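Aim 2 progress update. The chain analyzed this quarter is reproduced below.
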Amino acid sequence: MSSPSPTTTGDNRLLTSLRKDTVGGGLLVIAALTALIWANSPLADSYFALRDVEIGFAPWHLQLSLGTWAADGLLAIFFFLVGVELKTEFTHGDLRSFRTAIVPITAAAGGVIVPALIYTVLMTSNPQLLRGWAIPTATDIAFAVAILAIIGSHLPKALRIFLLTLAAVDDLLAIGIIAVFYTETINPIPLLAAVGVIIVYGLIASRWRTFFVDRAWAAWVILLPLGLIAWGLMHASGIHATIAGVALGFTIPALARRRDTGQDRRPVQDETPNLAEVLEHRLRPLSAGFAVPVFAFFAAGVAVGGFEGLATAFSQPLTFAIIAALVLGKPLGILASTWLVSRFTSAGLDPSLKWLDLAGVGLLAGIGFTVSLLVAELSFIPGSPAHDYAKVAILSASVIAALLATLVLGSRNRRYRKAEGATLDVHQP
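Predicted structure tokens:
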């Protein structure tokens, strides 16, 4: 980590491509489709056998299946980056200013509350399934941003910022829901130990210029083992281990130091990248290219039982509730909460944005793939009918939301492109 910039000349084309939103989203699709095809092929038994293979360390309560390792372990890398991004947004990003942050924060809250309410209302006649109320509250930022990048070349830049901020807050809310509502028992000693290790991790990270500049090995020798210990202790505490990833990410310093230069001793911004930028640059390919696709591969594999099985799944109230909550609840909650905060406070939308643009983003937010699958794993017994129906619903809702968002935002993109073309024609001599 001694490079003066997060972008190094040593990066090969593969690592560079894995940092692109479109590539990460594409790998998610490939992994999910591969799992679905394999789980519904004549070789389905081999898929489930692979998913259920247990490896690890039994004395440390880490004798886990590959599927669990992917959900609890690999996904912690993704959530670590979420924590880093949130820290950056809160320190010097769009969440730093209350006036600019209140609209997407409120939109994210509405996009969590309304889908949860829709699910709960639709499932009141099935109280045993109410535990899945949080499944439709999450947004898959990787999918959503990838689709926006593909179809939104001429959309206002403020729309992408709005989506990123909304998704970041959405992730934070989802993390809180997992920690509070999906933790059945807590072992206080491992939890306190995990908190202690996270504090030490943060203290060392805060001195990263002292420890790590010109010592690239130090970050891996010091921070990586501490992070693994914190993850293991969090797992032993009973709280979902991905929470450790978020907590560790929040400890990473996201602001570059200022230094005095020149004879007038005026402070100027140090050009050296901060640790948040360095870690995000190094870990993004690992998360997008391996951790999240592997999780998707093990989480998306569900035996639907052919057309008859699909027909059965789509006849279930659970399936309908999740699809309705994601496809309808997300945009409704985002639009309604944004209108309320714009109507009754001094905050408002960016002037370049229209309500139809926001409706398209609301539909994109209905893509709940990664975190929704994780919550489904926590809500229902793996292998149970409810567990499989929930997965079918999540995948179906994500496809429907993506298609509808593509139609809306694709139309808006063409409109903005024509408007830009007309403006260029007017100004040409």
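The domain at 20-70+104-173+295-423 is CATH 1.20.1530.10 (Na+/H+ antiporter like fold). The longest helix spans residues 385-427. These observations will guide the mutagenesis experiments scheduled for the next reporting period.
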